User: Fold this.
Amino acid sequence: MKSTKSRLFSSDARLSDLITAHPSLLALLTRLDISLGFGDRSIADVCEASGVDTDFFLLICNVYTFNNYVPSTAAILGTDMTGLVSYLEKSHRYYVDKRLPHIESHLDAIAQNLGGRIGQVFISFFKEYKHEVETHFKHEEHDVFPHIRALMAGERDVTYSIGEFIDTHSDIEGKLDDLLNIVFKYLPPQVDDDNVLDVVYDILRLREDLKKHTFIEEKIMVPLVQHLEHAILL
Amino acid sequence: MKLRLLIVEPSELIIEGIKSFLEGQIRFKVLEPEMNTDHLAERLVAARPDIVLINPTLIDSVSHLRGEQPMAMVALVYQYVEREALKNYDAVVDIRDSRATIIETLAQASPGETDSAKHNYELTKRETAVLVQLAQGKTNKEIADALNVSVHTVISHRKNITHKTGIKSVAGLTVYAMLNNLLDESTLI
Assistant:
């Protein structure tokens, strides 16, 4: 009998079929330590060869693909979540080292095009946002992730509690909506170059990705850590 | 979109008269009339009329009937009625009015026709003034003092600005203000 958690995608399907049906999952592969060139192998085979837990891989893919899918606590606890922190860290690096600089280079070109004080204000809006995102991630990498690693290693770590995370975690995709509106509605028509369209697609994609990232932190990471904290304090 | 008109009137003669006036008027869709107010509240929810043409002698007040959905309450009067009794209505139709006047009054009263702000995404002068001050880094309180309005009013202007532009953050609104040449560069912080 198949477990609930693999009901949406099953591990014996070809990974290539999964990607063909949901191309946006391509962006997840490197963050999940899976390289391209997997040929016609099944999801289970590719995961095993890459040292990734298949159930964990499917859990993340299912969350990314199905908007209404919230894994139950039982499903989360029944899955090997060892790879979660590493996945979240790699996602942070992907956003900070790849996506944001990519978007920034397009916005830089637009700012040049706008010129003068307007160009400066425009680009500094984005730089401020980028700084906020980096600070947000740094906090998680500095306080939250080591806490989870310690708990997973069976250490009794009481220096931090996930309750603090729940109280302070804020969304980081909201300002992207502002940026999106500015870029496609309010830039003067003379800035009508390819950069605008490119960057709109990039922002839309990043916004969706960040939404799912926040979702994974709040609906998967938090219940998991609450359970670990509870178990270890008993 | 046709304007959905609900007539609430005890006289069959008057109902038929109004209906015949509106015959051939493609702007209106006349709903099955109500002859009393017994089930009016439920009917309004179910039928979602744009305009309710109602005989004010049937009901003490119409203000409690207005729900979430915008609808125009139009009084249908046979003779002189105290101004006070009509103050909660959006318009008044007198059965002695001409056919053209009655049609025009109903069309004008509909929420879609009068509430032009709903589809107007241009910022008003007041909203623009609030936006400029926001972009200059002023707080709600400072803006309220400068424009001589309450903080509550400033907040509702801000909500409207965000609703219209889709931009929430002050930093984003500053970029918007600059792109629209609303800021004198020297006033920027």
About this structure: Chain B has two domains: 3-118, 125-187. The interface with chain A takes residues 165-169, 171-172, 174-176, 178-180, 185, 188 of chain B (CB under 8 Å). The beta strands of chain B are 3-8, 28-30, 51-54, 72-77, 91-94. The two ends of chain B are 48 Å apart (CA to CA).
